[in-house]
């Protein structure tokens, strides 16, 4: 009992902080009959500055005591949380410690707090790679490139234009740094997708880090080291726990020197070598991994895994071929493609970022290479979300949200799709909203950046995975 009283007395003395209180008495006091009749002398100004500085120190000490008191109160209930997690939670709850305690009883709240801390520590938020003048010049350059592409005819001409003078990543960045005034020379040899990704470091970090390292960081190439592999598997587990799967740009931020497409290619290599089991991939006769999309056959009603082959720009054929296989199939052969001539760069190349800002792998799923038969059986029956990176095939007629009213058409939703913010509308409604000027690629509900590629079409297969995330339910 005596020990507790002594501890309480110590804390009370600590909060009183007599030294700061006594410092006010030590500062000289000058009294004047009229404050505005005479000018302030240098001596008086020095006294004023001392008192202002003392007030600032006293307020800072008050804030420190308040933070410590609130932290102790929170840790009294949740003793395992760190100081940084408490600070972030208080910031999120507007310094209301009672609200923090209530929210931490929710299972996912602490996970979201940790995710916020991790993302803040991994990326640079206040780096301006372009001045306003450079951004304006970039817009003009982008417009000029689009007009040039429209004038070219045929696949060969377009390919030659895009690939002409293509630079390795490090060389491309050095070229930009050497030509800060001339944007034409700075981006010479860059693909349009690479330019867009370079500009998106602050607005779309996943797009930026899919192709680029953090500013000033040199890209690593070649075989992955043992240390990098350990970082990769650790990051893979971390991203699956936070539910942020499929974002290879964000994924790569934790692996120094590697960018998103390198991580995506390495993941495929792990599948091809049998070190990771992922039911969403299948190997062809050459041993290459291909991502499988889940779709329901409208005639038979059977859920199938299918390849999706996209038509290239400028090709004569406007059809898209797809090869389906049953759930139990482990190896298959994709649709045959016309043989290309000339130098061919493998998809797993460290320098292969493609002109498309797209990774068709859908989502990555961590499957231990030492799993039991039971966990492998569970993995084989799981279905990842369908990622709308390109035009989707027709979705089954059965509506996973019967009676749900589309906020745009005010009728029952057709082919519902959910945004990352949790809002659901018909896919056609999303397309119209995101394609209309001047609000192109802006969510009509949240006014935040949003593209069609970020939408997920809801089906009978994945509705339970997303039902709890819907924020505009109207039933």
Describe this structure in words.
- With 475 residues, the protein is mostly helical.
- Strand 6 and strand 7 form a beta hairpin.
- The radius of gyration is 29 Å and the shape is extended.
- Helix 2 packs antiparallel against helix 3, helix 4 (83-92) crosses helix 6 and helix 11 (192-199) crosses helix 12.
- The chain is built from 18 helices and 8 strands.
- The strands form 3 sheets. The chain has a 3-stranded antiparallel β-sheet with strand order 3-4-5, with no helix packed on it. A 3-stranded antiparallel β-sheet has the order 7-6-8.
- It folds into 4 domains: 2-30 and 38-122, no CATH class; 132-203, no CATH class; 226-336 and 349-381, no CATH class; 385-475, Zinc/RING finger domain, C3HC4 (zinc finger) (Herpes Virus-1, 2-Layer Sandwich), CATH 3.30.40.
- The model is unreliable at 1-15, 124-129, 160-166 and 309-397 (pLDDT under 50).
- 43% of the residues lie in helices and 5% in strands.
User: In total, how many domains does the architecture comprise?
Assistant: 4
Helix content: 40-55%
Based on secondary structure, the structural category is mainly alpha
- Estimate the mean pLDDT confidence: 69
Largest sheet: 3 strands, antiparallel
Give the neighbour order of strands across the main sheet.
Answer: 3-4-5
Rounded to the nearest angstrom, the radius of gyration is 29 Å
Please state the overall shape, judged from the principal axes of the Cα atoms. extended
SSE run? HHHHHHHHHHHHHHHEEEEEHEEHEH
Low-confidence stretches: 1-15, 124-129, 160-166, 309-397
User: How many strand units?
Assistant: 8
How far apart lie the N and C ends?
58 Å
Protein name: Homeodomain-like DNA binding domain-containing transcription factor
Biased composition (Basic residues): 334-346
Domain Myb-like: 216-271
InterPro entries: Homeodomain-like_sf, SANT/Myb, Ubox_domain, Znf_RING/FYVE/PHD
């Amino acid at each position: 009992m005596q020990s507790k009283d002594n501890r309480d007395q110590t804390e009370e003395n600590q909060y009183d902080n007599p030294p700061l209180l006594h410092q006010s008495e030590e500062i000289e006091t000058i009294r004047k009959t009229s404050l505005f009749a005479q000018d302030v002398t240098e001596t008086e100004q020095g006294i004023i500055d001392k008192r202002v500085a003392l007030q600032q120190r006293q307020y800072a000490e008050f804030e420190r005591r308040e933070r410590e008191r609130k932290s102790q109160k929170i840790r009294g209930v949740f003793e395992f949380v760190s100081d940084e997690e408490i600070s972030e939670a208080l910031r999120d709850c507007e310094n209301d410690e009672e609200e923090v305690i209530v929210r931490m009883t929710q299972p996912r709240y602490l996970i979201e707090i940790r995710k916020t801390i991790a993302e803040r520590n991994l990326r640079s938020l206040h780096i301006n790679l372009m001045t306003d003048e450079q951004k304006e010049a970039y817009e003009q350059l982008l417009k000029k490139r689009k007009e040039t592409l429209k004038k070219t005819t045929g696949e060969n001409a377009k390919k030659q234009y895009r690939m002409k003078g293509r630079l390795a990543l490090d060389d491309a960045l050095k070229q930009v740094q050497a030509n800060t005034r001339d944007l034409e020379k700075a981006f010479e040899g860059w693909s349009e997708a690479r330019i867009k990704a370079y500009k998106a470091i602050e607005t779309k970090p996943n797009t930026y880090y899919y192709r680029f390292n953090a500013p000033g960081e040199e890209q690593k190439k070649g075989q992955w080291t043992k240390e990098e592999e350990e970082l990769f598997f650790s990051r893979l587990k971390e991203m699956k726990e936070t539910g942020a799967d499929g974002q290879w740009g964000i994924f790569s931020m934790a692996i120094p020197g590697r960018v998103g497409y390198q991580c995506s290619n390495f993941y495929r290599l792990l599948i091809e070598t049998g070190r990771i089991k992922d039911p969403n991939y299948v190997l062809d006769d050459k041993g290459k991994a291909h991502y499988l999309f889940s779709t329901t056959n409208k005639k038979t009603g059977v859920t199938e895994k299918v390849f999706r082959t996209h038509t290239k720009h400028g090709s004569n054929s406007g059809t898209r071929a797809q090869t389906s296989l049953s759930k139990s199939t482990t190896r298959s052969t994709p649709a045959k493609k016309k043989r290309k001539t000339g130098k061919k760069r493998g998809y797993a190349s460290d320098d292969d970022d493609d002109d498309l800002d797209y990774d068709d792998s859908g989502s990555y799923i961590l499957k231990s290479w030492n799993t039991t038969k039971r966990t492998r059986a569970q993995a084989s029956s799981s279905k990842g979300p369908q990622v709308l990176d390109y035009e989707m095939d027709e979705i089954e007629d059965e509506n996973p949200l019967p009676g749900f009213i589309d906020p745009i058409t005010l009728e029952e939703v057709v082919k519902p799709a959910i945004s990352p913010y949790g809002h659901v509308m018909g896919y056609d409604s999303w397309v119209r909203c995101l394609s209309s000027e001047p609000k192109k690629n802006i969510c009509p509900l949240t006014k935040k950046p949003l593209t069609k590629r970020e939408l997920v079409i809801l089906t009978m297969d994945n509705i339970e995975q997303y039902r709890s995330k819907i924020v505009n339910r109207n039933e």
